[in-house]
Amino acid sequence: MPTIAYQLYCSRNFPPLDGTLSMLAGAGYKAVEGYGGLYDDLAGLKAGLDRNGLSMPSGHFALDMVEGDPARTLKVARALGVQKVIVPWVAPELRGTDLDSWKSFAQRLATALAPIRDEGFVTGWHNHDWDFADLGGTTPMDLIVDAGLDLELDLGWVKRAGLDPVETLRRFSGRVRAVHVKDLAPEGQNAEEDGWADVGHGTQDWAAIKAELDAQGIDHFVIEHDNPADHARFARRSLESVQAW
């Protein structure tokens, strides 16, 4: 059975967390993906997950946490049952600007995640659109994979980068450990939601994407919307779409 999770970042503007977890459980979710500041109240987060029958098979962990405090990263992951530790983003000043600096960043990322991977966790990188920049025949994403890292491929940002999600899945075949299932509204629509859409209600070709996911044996889907106007509506409609696959 596939894992269908909800990235809790979607609901950051809809506190409290307990209400979000209850809403997700009521909508039929069994899993979520954590991020950043949620780990500050580790006991409270764990209690909320348990109370609502939710697991957390993957989590986003900032590079400064993974690199600066791998012991805490491991403690958090183990306490929450996280199996996949994903670095999701870095500030612009930490990113590369050319081929050599991106190579250096990719190696830095690989070095930071090595102690986590050595403890038996799946580790990887979550993309946006800027990590598909042309570096003269390669991209930051290619360099990150070349450095030995796996991926949590965000299919929404892939399309926003002007790329085909199916072709991109094939490009990184064997290195994708999970996908962010994210949809885009038709051009000019949903401006109040930054142009994103509920999964299955946008422009992504989910039939073709799902066929490729099946072909590669990828069965960990994380539902996400970066700025939903109504997180309960988004959660419900998106889960219905993914379950219909």
UniProtKB/TrEMBL annotation:
Pfam families listed in its UniProt record: AP_endonuc_2
Keyword Isomerase: yes
Domain Xylose isomerase-like TIM barrel: 24-235
A GO molecular-function descriptor: isomerase activity
Keywords assigned: Isomerase
Alphabetical list of SUPFAM superfamilies matching this protein: Xylose isomerase-like
Leader peptide range in chain numbering: none
Protein name: Sugar phosphate isomerase/epimerase family protein
Organism (species): Rubellimicrobium aerolatum
Lineage: Bacteria, Pseudomonadati, Pseudomonadota, Alphaproteobacteria, Rhodobacterales
